[in-house]
Write a structure and sequence with these properties.
Deoxyribonuclease I, Chain A; alpha+beta; 9 helices; single chain; 31% helix
Length: 373
Amino acid sequence: MIKILKKVCTPFIVLGVIVTLSLSSKTSLNGTQTLLSNSLKVMTINVWSGLDYIGTFKMGEYETPQIREKRYQALLKEIANLNPDIIAINEANFLPDYIKRLANDLNYDYIYHVGVAGLKIGRCGIPTNLKEGDGLLARKQLQLKQVRQKKLSGGGIITNCFSFHTQDATQVLVGRIMLNDKPVFVAVTHWHASPFDTPQNRTLLKELKDTYGYSDDEYNQAIQKLEADNEWRKNESIAMAEFLKKVVHDNAPCIVMGDFNTTLDSPEMRYFLSQGYHDTFLPSKNASPYTWNPMENANIKKYYVTDTNTKFDSLYAHCTKINDLQPKTIDYILTNSVIPLTMVHRSTVCCTTLHDGYHPSDHFGVFAEILIQ
């Protein structure tokens, strides 16, 4: 943004914008924040359930409760450093405990919706340790309210009180804040995860078949699964775009955040962006752009790395694991056309610092500071 302003503005206007941004909030004596301008600091992170999603009565867990607590404390330290006004989270588990605790520790308002839970009535059901979902937190001055939620994919029924489903499900949750008496819509989403249907992955499947002796049937099944999973995500993109058109007021600012499990050049993301949204990320020469980074994230290194130079139970699983070990950007802060890119003051990948040897999640997050006109 500063480069653009230098081209079109006088130094005095640039200085004015910088001063405005620097006064976006101030800390009172009791530690609460008072917003002073139309600048919003927003953050999104998949906080990681720590589950392997294998099991019926109970899902497997990668960590001990003690390690999970260390990750939570690392997250609090990152949030304190960034001082965001709004936070979007994915994979909060167990709900509502997780988001209530986080909101209480931060003194923020919150909204949430369960995304996957299996067979549940209240807290009871199976898997016993799964009641995961997405949420939004915001400073109390912003008067966060829930607008609507929509399940984007997955069968069955999923509510905060009751769920009955046996496959992956995804959603979008929309809230509204008030900034200087003006409504701003904020949304959090979590799309289906799978390898991307790219020429590289189709070539990889063929090479794995030839190298490790997977059958023709396994190869054909893998291709069909690759196509179906990517069509799944494309349908999520279409459903979310249509839903946001209905619930976001005309000419109202809208910020959409979360774990999209896809890249900007994918068909599903290209479609969603074509509906009037853009990515806020501003690349830095000295920082990695990846939010999923097996080369740097301590949790991925510890729990996900495995030998891929051997035959797996299925060809598709083999391809999936190789893809899991490749760095990529899949978490985003997107804004609609009411918020032009010139209003993005700064953005960066965040939550990359180790605290007592732990990263907060298996994902890194994204942080941005945005002016709302």
